[in-house]
Amino acid sequence: MGRKKKFLKILIIGLIFIIALAVPSIFKRYAQATNVTGTATFNQGTLSLIPPTQIVWAATLTGYDMEILNTAPYQVDDATGSGSGWNVSADYTGLTDSVTGESLANNAMTTNGSTTSATATTAPSSQCVTTCTLPAPYTTPTYPVTVPVGTTSAIIYAASQGSGEGDVEIDPAWWLAVPANTLAGTYTGTITMTVASGP
Asked: How far apart are CA 67 and CA 99, in angstroms?
């Protein structure tokens, strides 16, 4: 009887030992970490420009030379993901009164970032429409910029490399020089704006 008890005791101790060794192994099997590779691919989007709907100047003639202001903003959406920067250029047909046939001077239209002076050297300000990297200043253009008449455009704003990504609003000042001897009337023309990659 004593031997049986001793044998059972040894058997129970042995089973406990086996279970003690097996349980951590079971938990380890179910808690084992597995590495998973995550991949995100982003294809290039486009570079686009949303120009002002229109640029309108209005004033009462005074018999003196005048500089008339308009502040119509425009947007550049850089979804290329290239970090190349971009530039906006403009030209126009000139402004002519269809009734009298009179036209304003070819250099009548200029742009800068000042709402108080047409001759200020201030660049236009910018702000994010959605998440963006605000444009960093570039060496050109030098303000004020004269918007040329004809097919040769002038750069009116530029974002340096590594800036200008996302949807950006540019807030320029559009100035129109009106000489004292200008005839009353409505002067119209077409302004063409273009955005291109690179500052």
From this structure: 23
The overall pTM is greater than 0.90:
no
Determine, yes or no, domain membership for 78: yes
Question: Is residue 14 situated within a structural domain?
Answer: no
Q: Determine the straight-line distance between the first and last CA of the chain, rounded to whole angstroms.
A: 99
Pairing mode of beta strands 191-197, 86-92: antiparallel
Q: What is the pLDDT of residues 9-66, one digit of tens each?
A: 665 665 565 555 555 555 555 578 899 999 998 888 999 999 999 999 999 999 999 9
The parent domain of residue 78 ranges over 47-197
Closest of 153, 146, 154, 144 to residue 123, by C-alpha: 144
Please count the structural domains in the chain.
1
Two tokens at 93?
């047909």
